[in-house]
Amino acid sequence: MKRIVFTKHAEEMLTARSINREMVMSCLTQPTQVVHARENKRAYLKDFDNNYLKAIVAEEKDAFIVVTAYWFAKNRIKQ
């Protein structure tokens, strides 16, 4: 398993959005969906009942670099 590194921005956003690190780690290790994001990043989505948690991640050889994370409404997912 790759190590998980949180950027300073990600740490600040987790606090501001009431998301804990364990939720993000769950999102990365057991995602509901993984999609391409901009600038060589991936978006990991995890279903948390009412909404998805979306973590934007830059993947390196030995690490996931968490750039940010936020709640994403389920009705915004394209079927």
Topology:
Layout: E1 3-6, H1 8-16, H2 21-29, E2 33-37, E3 41-48, E4 51-59, E5 63-73
Parallel strand pairs: 1-5
Antiparallel strand pairs: 2-3, 3-4, 4-5
Structural summary, described in words:
The chain has helices spanning 8-16, 21-29, and strands at residues 3-6, 33-37, 41-48, 51-59, 63-73. It is of the alpha+beta class and 79 residues long. The chain has a single domain (3-74), classed as RelE-like (YaeB-like fold). It has a five-stranded mixed β-sheet. Strand 4 (51-59) and strand 5 (63-73) form a beta hairpin. The longest helix is centred in the first third of the chain and has 9 residues, at 8-16. The mean pLDDT is 92.
Main beta sheet strand tally, sense and closure: 5 strands, mixed
CATH class descriptor name: Alpha Beta
Write the CATH fold name: YaeB-like fold
Distance between the termini: 30 Å
* Structural class based on helices, strands and sheet pairing: alpha+beta
State the main characteristics.
79 residues, alpha+beta, YaeB-like fold, five-stranded mixed β-sheet, 2 helices, 5 strands, 23% helix
Quick description:
This protein has one domain: RelE-like (YaeB-like fold).
